[in-house]
Specification:
It is built from 16 helices and 8 strands. The protein is α/β, with parallel strands linked by helices and 332 residues long. Helix 9 links the parallel strand 4 and strand 5.
Length: 332
């Protein structure tokens, strides 16, 4: 018990969170409420049953992890009130966790039902565009910021399997640059590289040209070559996860020398049972890591668990005032 309380003390310090997905951090109660209001069908009828369905308890594949989104995204997507509500509630939840600065990411297309090639989640076509989704999320985050006195910035995600969306994403980053959108991200199936999907590359070139910050999910499941592409081709300034960088010694040394920031989620990544080369923990080998919950409702208590990591890692989270982590933040 002594250990637990000392961890609690450390973890009560102010925190910065740089890698968390909005659509993976929705309150289960909100999903149930919105489903009822909109007359949307869910596979179960109570919060407890829904938690059992969408919370990942055991290691599995990344695909099985991502399939959880199919259970509830149709409820939230396409609904203006719900989108603003999840953004505001997200800020409230972060404030309660002691987070004082957060960069939350999401795909505007995955919450829209209009102006999207291939409308997601089997929704019928409506009138909510990705542009309006960004505006609504911005409103919800701003409301939360005012109410809960923390800073919340956002990162817009391109999806690897939908290269046709990427141009829109960078344009939205440009349009809402002064309204809390701080960067572009690329998420999804890492086997889909940018050589085969040049639209992602073009979007990132435009981001570089316009001074939009860049992060890329890479080396979480995919090999070190995906990290190399993220850094060298897409000019990523931070790497989402990046664990498999450790498989390429030259790349690893180069990125260490560059002070590359790895947005790591040691506990958040474990349900996917991925192998972290070089170290049982991985994080201390990766050098400069920032920790994030990634997809929080699917893994209760992860933020808490992260605090049981050895001190050099824990300090990455808790001593946020440390010089390098300040440099990793993209918000004003
Ligand atoms: Zn992520």
């Amino acid at each position: 018990m002594a250990d637990r309380s000392s961890e609690q003390v450390v973890f009560s310090k102010p925190k910065v969170e740089l890698h968390v997905h909005l659509d993976g951090a929705i309150r289960v109660q909100t999903i149930m409420d919105v489903a009822k209001m909109r007359g949307k069908t869910l596979p179960v009828n109570t919060v407890e049953e829904m938690k059992k369905r969408i919370i990942v308890e055991k290691p599995g594949t990344l695909t099985s992890f991502l399939e959880k989104f199919n259970e509830y995204m149709h409820v939230i997507a396409g609904d203006r009130e719900a989108i603003k509500r999840i953004a505001r509630e997200f800020v409230e939840d972060k404030a309660k966790e002691g987070v004082i600065y957060v960069e939350v990411r999401y795909s505007p297309h995955l919450l829209a039902n209009s102006g999207v090639k291939e409308i997601p989640w089997n929704q019928e076509e409506g009138d909510l565009s990705p542009d309006e989704v960004v505006r609504l999320v911005n409103e919800g985050l701003s409301e939360g910021e005012r109410e809960f006195k923390i800073k919340a910035r956002s990162i817009l995600c391109c999806m690897r399997h939908m290269p046709s969306w990427s141009k829109d994403v960078v344009e939205l980053c440009k349009k809402y640059k002064d309204e809390g959108v701080v960067a572009i991200d690329l998420a999804g199936d890492e086997s889909l590289n940018c050589e085969a999907n040049p639209e992602h590359m073009e979007a990132y070139e435009e981001a570089v040209r316009c001074g939009i910050h860049r992060t890329v999910h890479a080396g979480e499941v995919g090999p070190a070559s995906v990290v190399k592409e993220a850094v060298e081709v897409l000019k990523a300034e931070r790497v989402g996860h990046g664990y498999r960088t450790l498989e390429d010694d030259d790349l690893y040394k180069k990125l260490l020398a560059q002070n590359m920031h790895f947005e790591s989620s040691r506990v958040g990544s474990s349900p996917c049972n991925r192998k972290v080369a070089g170290s049982s923990l991985g994080l201390d080998s990766l050098g400069r890591c920032v920790l994030g919950q990634d997809t929080s409702p699917c893994a209760p208590g992860w933020l808490w668990l992260q605090c049981s990591l050895p001190s050099p890692v824990c300090e990455c989270v808790c001593e946020w005032v440390d010089d390098w982590i300040c440099k990793a933040l993209w918000g004003p």
